[in-house]
Amino acid sequence: MSRRLRVVLSYDGTAYHGFQRQGRGLLTVQDVVFVAIEAVTGSPPQRFAAAGRTDAGVHALGQVIAFDATRSVPTARVVRALNANLPDDVSAVEAREVGRDFHPRYDATAKTYAYTFYGWETGARQALLSRYALFVPFQPDLEVMRHAAGLLAGSHDFSAFQDSGRPVADATRTIFECRLEYGSYSRPPLAGVRAAHLIVRADGFLYHMVRVLAGTLLEVGRGRLSGEDVAGILARRDRRLAGPTLPPHGLCLLKVDYE
Amino acid sequence: MSRRLRVVLSYDGTAYHGFQRQGRGLLTVQDVVFVAIEAVTGSPPQRFAAAGRTDAGVHALGQVIAFDATRSVPTARVVRALNANLPDDVSAVEAREVGRDFHPRYDATAKTYAYTFYGWETGARQALLSRYALFVPFQPDLEVMRHAAGLLAGSHDFSAFQDSGRPVADATRTIFECRLEYGSYSRPPLAGVRAAHLIVRADGFLYHMVRVLAGTLLEVGRGRLSGEDVAGILARRDRRLAGPTLPPHGLCLLKVDYE
């Protein structure tokens, strides 16, 4: 009798060609997760799905996957068993049995991403952040960025903030929260290092959406765009008007919410 | 006319065989720093010295080095120039000109290290911490550890807490501060993940001292040693009575203090 398991994963995306299986010799997070699941359950996962297809180099603190497992590994032991078969940079954090119909993407009510950037106070790269944050050597105006971030909240057609390559019929998404946090890390090894985080919580995301939003807000922060420009770009739905797609390593899928 | 420069470095020690040059084909942090200094100043650094010889796998947020530079690179540009020539996992954070006699180790009044461990609440590894913290799957008693940590402060002969391999004439060191912090990371990508940190600030450290102290306190935390045992081990100066040397990746040199 097979059960459906929901597992929360965290990973450092640096070494992977994104989450989703690619084939073509490109190692993905899904590949190593499949190997671990097969080692633990005795067969490849059935009806496997993930909440978010994170891109190459993007990290996750709370990616959610689900799959049917045939062998009766006690749910309480799934996390430990998976971790024994996963590389250091991928880990299972939590596992639970869910209903047959659970789908980690379709059932999600919201996902939260963070884009992290730093560097303007010191003008210096920080090696311990280099995997997880974008180095920004100029001083952005965080207050105008914060204001512009607030304009993005709500239900909008975000066509201007998606890259081509993954077309959707309807580009309307609802951003529940779009805010800029700024301050010091309080704990080792980064204690005292300052960074800013764009936190975006929405019911769904378009291709590269957070990276384009962050890139656009950074243009606002350096005075190349105004807050009003951002509202205009949103209204005109033209990708060419928005800012650049920031590199993937600053991005992390923090959390997926369900009912 | 040569000047003496003092530079603060941060690095992720994962890929390196420690700070100090080894030769024998083993890449160290010092090797890549030498390459960068030579690229920037036009010649190998003269009278090079570092505050701490961190071991293989150990990280640094605030390692301090000093060297004589012949070419007149403006001090304000040294950080940027070095960073342009350093790999991602090593960075210069700050540079200033200092007196001819400055020595980063002999002139240091204190160094602060942190040893980070985590894992007992969830029983799960956390991929985003795997480079920087020890996974501890059992629940340690943090209160008794905190008490025992307090007993280590002060001037003592720490012979029981050093490994062989780097003998010293006098094993007396003064620990100014030895405390256990415990709580959640507050910022992405680790927001909400809980960890404990042993913070040790002392006028000097013996070989592997923080890792043996942390290993001994963890034995206290799991009930194999008591706080009184720790006092006894200190008094008896016998390495065999103390706990194991914890692995290097949980350790970070946070800061070096000068007058």
Question: How are the SSEs ordered, and which strands pair?
Answer:
The structure is a homodimer of 259-residue chains.
Chain A: E1 3-11, H1 29-41, E2 46-50, E3 59-69, H2 75-84, E4 90-98, E5 108-118, E6 134-135, H3 142-152, E7 154-157, E8 172-184, E9 194-202, H4 209-221, H5 227-236, E10 251-258
Parallel strand pairs in A: 3-10, 5-6
Antiparallel strand pairs in A: 1-3, 1-4, 2-3, 5-9, 5-10, 7-8, 8-9
Helix pairs in contact in A: 1-2, 3-4, 3-5
Features of this protein?
homodimer; alpha+beta; Alpha-Beta Plaits; 2 domains
Question: What do these coordinates show?
Answer:
The structure is a homodimer of 259-residue chains. By secondary structure, chain A is an alpha+beta fold. The first copy, chain A, has 2 domains: 96 residues, 2-Layer Sandwich (Alpha-Beta Plaits); 150 residues, Alpha-Beta Plaits (2-Layer Sandwich). Chain A contains 5 helices and 10 strands; from the N terminus they run E-H-E-E-H-E-E-E-H-E-E-E-H-H-E. In chain A, strands 1, 2, 3, 4, 5, 6, 7, 8, 9 and 10 form a 10-stranded mixed β-sheet that branches. In chain A, helix 1 crosses helix 2, helix 3 packs antiparallel against helix 4 and helix 3 packs parallel to helix 5. The two termini of chain A are 27 Å apart. At the A-B interface, helix 2, strand 4 and strand 9 of A face helix 2, strand 4 and strand 9 of B.
How far apart lie the N and C ends of chain A? 27 Å
What is CATH's topology name of the largest domain in chain A? Answer: Alpha-Beta Plaits
Identify the CATH class of the largest domain in chain A.
Alpha Beta
**How many helices of chain A?**
5
Task: Give the CATH H-level superfamily of the largest domain in chain A.
Answer: Pseudouridine synthase I, catalytic domain, C-terminal subdomain
The largest interface is:
A-B, 44 and 43 residues
Identify the quaternary structure here. Answer: homodimer
**Reported CATH architecture of the largest domain in chain A:** 2-Layer Sandwich
What is the SS-derived class of chain A?
alpha+beta
Topology as H/E string of chain A?
A: EHEEHEEEHEEEHHE
